[in-house]
Specification:
- The protein contains two helices and 20 strands.
- By secondary structure, the chain is mostly beta strands.
- It has a 20-stranded antiparallel sheet that branches.
- The N terminus is likely disordered.
Length: 411
């Protein structure tokens, strides 16, 4: 298994890709290449396996995200889980992969719900890659997450039961048309399911198609045109269904040997069918955009910053969508061979587009981690995170302090 610092570096590398533009496409051009045996701790014939154990103890002074201090509940819980990385090259042109974490949360005090946690630890949880022809790659990929808190969930106060299961299953084909041009197309289905009956109105299925046409202009600059179409369909007749279109351009530029700039700009259209909630008539359309910069400041310090503007589906019947500004910053500093410090901060400004009950709010989540790697791939980390929500509506503000101690052990 890679070292603790390498995992943080991977997360830093993936962050702009996961937020990049309006396209769901993530290229997998290097996934057929043989990997180093040093990255895995178990080998059985041609099956490479890497296993790691996680134990986390968390203290949270507002487990229910209460907007009134009189109802605020503090709590302590543990999370135990297993990291699994699998690489199986059945043939030089056909491989299976898995990169997933599975854990279980147990509350000792405070308001909270015990349950399983599933999370992808790379671009995809599971993948099958097959080479087609000289320059083509066909992939079947799946990305799953369950009981993982996102900024969308953190924005909802006065609840402890908002837990979601998200799964994205897709088929993707990419091909190098020449040394300068490439194309990628993807067909997929994304499902979102509530793990609690109180939030079943959020259950939906999204079927989508996306395409990316890229051009390697020179050694340092790659640009491309992307387009996507999504059909959002809710299970319950509360939220309005929507068709979504998006087109745009995205570019990656190697500014220096150690700094990469990513830019995207596009046009997004959300067309809602008001059959479920006729009072919500707002449609959304307009520009989208993002900028992301990654830089290796020194051999020990790297950081990234990104800013994104887009429209997001609403979470209640009277709100079709919101306009979001999302900014993120992350810094990693390896102070010496064993110690590492990570700083991060996320700021979300959201404006819900509804004449009846729209909310404008800001969500700020800064944090710090200090880790000690006592063996290759094994570390002990102490972390602190602060959540604060400010709303233009009464009784919607809250704050939250989260402290944790984590052990990661590589078998």
């Amino acid at each position: 298994m890679k070292s603790w610092g390498s995992h943080l570096g991977l997360l830093l590398l993936l962050l702009p890709c996961l937020l990049y533009g309006g396209s769901e496409i993530r290229r997998r051009k290097d996934r057929l290449r043989p990997e180093s045996e040093e990255d895995y701790n178990i080998r059985f014939r041609e099956i490479y396996l890497d296993l790691g154990y996680r134990l986390k103890v968390v203290a949270d002074d507002n487990t229910n995200r209460a907007t009134d201090t009189a109802t605020q509940e503090s709590g302590i819980y543990t999370e135990n889980g297993l990291d699994v990385r699998l690489y199986w090259p059945l043939t030089p042109d056909f491989t299976l992969r898995a990169d997933i974490y599975a854990g279980y949360i147990s509350f000792f005090s405070g308001e909270g719900t015990d349950g399983w946690v599933f999370e992808a630890t790379s671009d995809e949880s599971f993948a099958v890659d097959m080479k087609l022809g000289e320059n083509g790659l066909l992939s079947v990929v799946d990305r799953i997450s369950a009981n993982v808190e996102s900024y969308e969930i953190s924005a909802v106060g006065d609840t402890k039961d908002l837990k979601m299961l998200e799964n994205d299953l897709a088929v993707q084909y990419e091909v190098d048309l020449s040394t300068l041009y490439f194309a990628v197309c993807r067909l997929g289905q994304a499902d979102s399911r509530s793990l609690n009956d109180d939030f079943e109105h959020r259950d939906k299925r999204t079927e989508y198609a996306a395409v990316l046409l890229g051009w390697r202009i020179n050694r340092d600059l790659t640009t491309g045109l992307y387009g996507s179409y999504r059909e959002h369909r809710y299970d319950r007749p509360i939220n309005n269904d929507a068709d979504e279109y998006e087109v745009g351009i995205q570019s990656t530029y190697q500014l220096t040997k150690f700094t990469t700039l990513q830019l995207s700009a596009g046009y997004q259209n959300l067309d809602f069918d008001p059959a479920h909630t006729p009072a919500a008539t707002e449609d959304g359309d307009g520009i989208t955009g993002e900028v992301a910069i990654r830089s290796q400041l020194t051999g020990q310090v790297n950081h990234s910053v990104s800013a994104k503007y887009h429209r997001r589906l609403g979470t209640s019947g009277l709100i079709n969508f919101s306009e979001d500004w999302l900014s993120m910053y992350s810094l990693n500093w390896r102070t010496n061979r064993n110690w590492q410090v990570k700083l991060n901060c996320t700021w979300l400004h959201s404006e819900q587009q509804s004449e009846a009950s729209g909310e404008d709010y800001d969500l700020l989540t800064p944090g710090i981690q200090i880790g000690y790697e006592f063996a290759p791939g094994s570390s002990l980390t102490i972390a602190y995170e602060y959540n604060e929500k400010h709303s233009d509506m009464d009784f919607h503000d809250y704050s939250r302090n989260i402290c944790s101690l984590s052990l990661v052990y590589n078998f």
